[in-house]
Amino acid sequence: MSSAESQFLMSMKNKDEYRGKWIAILDNKIIAEGKDLQQVYKEAMEKSKVRTPLFKQVPEKDTEETLIL
Asked: C or N terminus of the chain, fewer CB within 10 Å?
């Protein structure tokens, strides 16, 4: 995971609209989202072509998380 993607993930302000969903992040943008990881992966890889996005499930409710980089 790149530093920019980590920063984006930690600074997300609109987490409520993604609660319980998987998101794919690339170049500080969410390029795919949904409840089914396989579908999110497929959509994200079609959009990104060569680079692999960061995949993250947004928790249903706020919890403390530690990212190990």
From this structure: C
Structure tokens at 43: 């959509």
- Among 48, 62, 49, which residue's Cα sits nearest to residue 20? 62
Averaged over 21-35, what is the pLDDT?
Answer: 92
Regarding pTM above 0.90, the answer is no
pLDDT, average across residues 4-25:
80
- Residue 48 CA to residue 12 CA, distance in Å, equals 21
Asked if residues 34 and 40 have their Cβ atoms less than 8 Å apart, the reply is: yes
Residue 29 three-state SS? strand
Q: How far apart are CA 51 and CA 35, in angstroms?
A: 22
